[in-house]
Each structure stands twice: as structure tokens, then as C-alpha cells.
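Predict the holo structure. Ligand: zinc ion.
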Amino acid sequence: MPELDDVDSRILGILVEDGRRSFREVARRAGVTTPTVQARVKRMMEEGLIRRISPIFDVSKFKQGLVFHLYLQVNPAEIEKVAQKLEKTTEVRGIYLTTGENNLTLRVVVDSLEQLQRLTETLDREFGVKQNSSQMVVRIFKDDQTVVVSPGTEVRLKCETCGEPIGAKPFVLKVAGHERFFCCPSCQEKFREKYEPKLKGLSLAIEAPEYPSAQST
Ligand SMILES: [Zn+2]
């Protein structure tokens, strides 16, 4: 699996502290140049490691809705499908696959118990999902992201061609200065065949990166 290097992890750490910092400020704190920060952040966004940079509210300062944890029992074969649908539901703020009989936990925010009731009915009707129990969150003491970033943190990448998760050793192409990751030489080659003619037209090069990548397993 690819890993965050020291620079990635420093940049992420600085942005986690305060996402409003300018690239210049991040560069100064990380001890690298501004273009390096720009390139790394762009890459990490392209790789989907950073989904977006958004403010983290102090929930205690807001008049917020009612927060519930719903514990669901979902047929394991359906979980992926159910989770994908639930992702698009505004009230659903967190979806967690867990161990145990109740294998899916949702964190939902609603304005009223009626809205919670409607959501519960929707879960049953549209997803055929049983809600086994729920708990209302009375007060949030801490609500941080689960990822603790440090150098060497492994990242999960998906193959650019087939979308499958990439194993221990990714196959890499450098496209216009950005690394693209693949699961196997065949996917790597398909990408090259598909994009090389287009990129040549734009005089952008596809190169093998400077570090060894095309390992065989
Ligand atoms: Zn692939």
C-alpha cells in the first residue's frame, strides 16, 4: 500500500489544524516551497485523500438539530448498496460499518422526532432495513476525524482504470507531473493507451516515476 511521506503528513497536519491557511503559510510551516505545497495538495485531492477542505464547527456553539445514532441490521450482501444510497441522504451525517449483530451505525441529524420517524420509515420502505435501536446524543464532547496522520500512514488507493483497490505495491505512471496509480500492469497499459495520444496533443508527457514502481508480485 502506498504511504504518506513526511512532507504529505506535515502538510496534512498543518491543514487539519487550520484549513484556512494559505499555501504560502503552509509552505513556511512545513519547511517546503509554495509550489510543493500546491502540487502535493492538488495530488492528494486528485487521489481522493482530501475530499474537501471545510470548516469544522464547534457544535456546542450552534443551535443544532437532534443527533441520533441508529443501529441497523443490514444483509451483508446489501451493505455497499445501502450505504451508497444513504450517503446522499442529508440527515445521514455518518455511516459506519461495524462488527456485531447491528452491522451498520448511522449518525443522523434531524430537526424533530417526526423527521426521525420519517427517516426510519424511509429506511424500512426503500432499503428494507430494520432499525434495531437508537440513541439520542445529548452532548458532544469531542467529534474529530478518525484518521491520525503521520509519516508512513498507509493510504488506500483505487486503480485509475478499473476502480479496484490497489494492493501493497501500486503500479505508477507520472502524467503531467502527477502520479496515477494502478492495480496491475494491464490497467497501467490500458490507461497509457487511452490517454497517451490525447496528452501528446497537449504536449504533456507520461513518464515512469523516478522511484521504482513496476514490481511484480
Ligand atoms: Zn486495475
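The first helix runs from residue 6 to 17. The helical segments are 6-17, 23-30, 34-46, 79-87, 113-127, 185-201.
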